[in-house]
Amino acid sequence: MTRKPLTAALVLGMGLSATAAANEGMWMPTQLPELAKTLKAAGFEGDPSALADVTTPPLNAVVRIGGGTGSFVSGDGLLLTNHHVAYGVIQYNSGKGHDYINEGFIAGGRDDERPANPDYRVLVTVGFDKVTDEVLREARGKSGRAYYDAVENARKRIVADCEAEGGVRCSVANMYYGSDFYRVRQLELTDIRLVYAPPRAIGNYGDEIDNFMWPRHTGDFTLLRAYVGKDGKPAPYSKDNVPYHPPAHLKMSLDGPKEGDYAMLAGYPGITYRLRTAAEFANQIDAVLPRRVEVFQQLIDVVEAAGKDDADARTRYASQLQSLKNNRKRAAGELEGLLRSDAKARRAADERAMLAATDAKYKADIDALFASLDAERAAGERELLVGLMSSQTQLLRSALLLERLRVESAKPDAERESGYQQRDQALIEGVLRQVQRRYDPTVEKAILTALLTRYQQLPDDQRDSHYDNLFGRTPEQLRKALDELYATTKLGDEAQRLSRFEAARKGAFIDNDPLVSVAAALVMAQLNAERESKERAGEQLRLRPSYMQALFAWRAQQGRAVYPDANGTLRISYGKVEALHPRDAVNYSPVTTVAGIVEKNTGTVPFDAPRPLLDAIAKGDFGSTADPALKTQTVNFLTNLDTTGGNSGSPVLNAKGELIGLNFDSNWESVSASWWFDPRYKRAVHVDMRYLRWLLAKVYPAPALLAEMGLPRE
Question: I need a labelling partner for 220 at 20 to 30 A (CA). Which of 91, 346, 473, 655 fits?
Answer without folding.
Answer: 655
